[in-house]
Amino acid sequence: MVNEHRSGPVRSTAAREAILDATARLFHNQGYDRLTIEGIAKEAGVGKQTIYRWWPSRGALIGECLAEGRLIPVDFVVPYTGDLSGDVEAWLRSVLAILDEPQGGALLRSLVAAATEDAGVGQHLGESLGVEEHLGSRLRAGIRDGQLAEDAPVAQIGRAILGAIIVESLGREKRDSEGVVRLARFLFAR
Amino acid sequence: MVNEHRSGPVRSTAAREAILDATARLFHNQGYDRLTIEGIAKEAGVGKQTIYRWWPSRGALIGECLAEGRLIPVDFVVPYTGDLSGDVEAWLRSVLAILDEPQGGALLRSLVAAATEDAGVGQHLGESLGVEEHLGSRLRAGIRDGQLAEDAPVAQIGRAILGAIIVESLGREKRDSEGVVRLARFLFAR
Amino acid sequence: MVNEHRSGPVRSTAAREAILDATARLFHNQGYDRLTIEGIAKEAGVGKQTIYRWWPSRGALIGECLAEGRLIPVDFVVPYTGDLSGDVEAWLRSVLAILDEPQGGALLRSLVAAATEDAGVGQHLGESLGVEEHLGSRLRAGIRDGQLAEDAPVAQIGRAILGAIIVESLGREKRDSEGVVRLARFLFAR
Amino acid sequence: MVNEHRSGPVRSTAAREAILDATARLFHNQGYDRLTIEGIAKEAGVGKQTIYRWWPSRGALIGECLAEGRLIPVDFVVPYTGDLSGDVEAWLRSVLAILDEPQGGALLRSLVAAATEDAGVGQHLGESLGVEEHLGSRLRAGIRDGQLAEDAPVAQIGRAILGAIIVESLGREKRDSEGVVRLARFLFAR
DNA sequence: GTGTAACCGAGACGGTACGTCCAGTCTTAAG
DNA sequence: CTTAAGACTGGACGTACCGTCTCGGTTACAC
């Protein structure tokens, strides 16, 4: 028989909140590469150890912020009107809206930088944007509706769209929403 | 026409070579985030200042290595047999071969990390893999041959394929060449 | 009366001790101009920042070593036997003994070098040798005893003796204790 | 029969002049510790090698400037009116005038710093101020005139006066010409 | 109630790397 | 053969953060 309880105070939600808040704020203002644990601790009014106690790394912090929608929204749903191409396009435009913000490109690159460093961020990135869950469901519905080939590689298509956006951003090309939209139309044109 | 030359010693090719060599070696062995200017200088047997004299940043160094094919090959040609899907697939497999090397995934993520930090690397990354030049040409030939729609977004398709590979790697999914190959087949199946 | 303390870790006496020890050791072995903060840190097994946290400069470090008698002794007392000239001579010989050590001249020049760079060292230098406190007192006693003129410039006389030693050392003249002793005798001969 | 001539240009007096000029200028403006060979070369419009070719060290440069009166005047003569104390005092005031200049104290300390590093500067320093030549002669004349004891340690007295000035400056005491003057009067009062 | 164990803020610690400055040597082209 | 220019290796600078540790103080459960 083990005693699961222990004495002492529990984790402070105020500290947790302050840390994640500070992380998100600094991530937006300075980008991932200038983000430091010390900076977060000072900004949050928290001791460094409190951060190290609960998160193993800078990347894990970003991962948690990402999962809670503190960096980018998390409700990228895909409508279902019956028009596959149009539905995907609607979702795509909501994703691209992030990039049209003033520092949108830098924000995406920072997220990618975090993802290269931390496996969790990489996994969360697609999820956050609804690539797997929402987009995947919609595409599978499209297959059922006969609008997409039976053997269409659903997961790969999602990655392709997201990846095209990322590659474009890495190349620092002038933002061109229409480019990616045309890609989507091409994908579902038959 | 004036004489642009000045007197005095000239840039040492030996030092340049040693620096780029050391950079490529360390990049492969340790990845981008553990790559330090001091480490490169020591490995190359060179003073730090010699690096700072000629390259403004770590990213610029990687960019130059990339452009000279010191990190990954630069001759990713796309054959032209008349079979569009097959030709693209051949190119794709040669690109994916990089990832099948022991540390292939980490190598790609390191390249992406460098690209998030340095604009030049981002621009060179696609070029190095022949996405724009070779793949683009082949796709345009496909359009001429009637195998691809007149208005197919050539550049976007290239980015989509490369992007799918990157996103997969960021997610640390088990390497699955067939996935991306199926994406390519889907793209050109008609 | 407020509590001046704050929470958190307290200054490490072990580090302080190691740093001052290393400073004194290196100062003796290499002289002031070859003394580096990095060398001290390595010798003391300490991070550079720990030195910069507590001392603003190399000179301040030397000043503290000097004040604590880690570079030269600090107990240069002047006896009082009634014989002014003899008493001063006794003190003088104990000071000159430093110069008769193997690297005595270099040591004095190093101290002077530190004093040119750091005001604190300059002030401590005379104090350390007892010029102001002990020698000054003895001279004032000499005035009371009628062995020295009422208006003898006590402080200046101390500086003159110390200064003669320094100037001789700066000129790299062969060490000649008797020269300075003769100066002292001349000063108090009447 | 040897041919004393050799081909090529001889040592450029213009370069020599420019270097010593620049050295003196920078020495006055920045002090000895901030004086760098590179700075001198740039200020003089000269290659670094030209400096290293003719002077072995920074100290040697200062020594030569000092010897040529480029740092402080070199004509500190001692008058001979018959009044020993008054004559010495006249000389002393002309020396002290240097210290009353705006950056006089710093200048003296810089000279001392150079002297701690370079034997030549140390030897030249006293000479420059006329301590040995002029003051020594005057004191010896004083002995002949019966104003000074037969066995007065002439050289030591000179060093004592100069040394008192130096020690005072090292201690960053408020400049007080009268102090040293009182010392001189005390020395020759009988 | 009183321990006492885990929390918290603060920040000192040994380290690594940064990007800069300068030392002293070497290399080039011009005179 | 000297010169101006400046690239080279190398060492030290003073700063920023890393991740660990050590404090004094504060909960809040277990006795």
TrEMBL record, chains A, B, C, D:
Gene3D superfamilies: Tetracycline Repressor, domain 2 (1.10.357.10)
Domain HTH tetR-type per the UniProt entry, residue ranges: 13-73
Record keywords, A-Z: DNA-binding, Transcription, Transcription regulation
DNA-binding segment(s): 36-55
Superkingdom: Bacteria
PROSITE patterns, per the entry: HTH_TETR_2 (PS50977)
PANTHER family associated with the record: HTH-TYPE TRANSCRIPTIONAL REGULATOR RUTR (PTHR30055), TETR-FAMILY TRANSCRIPTIONAL REGULATOR (PTHR30055:SF148)
Protein name according to UniProt: TetR/AcrR family transcriptional regulator
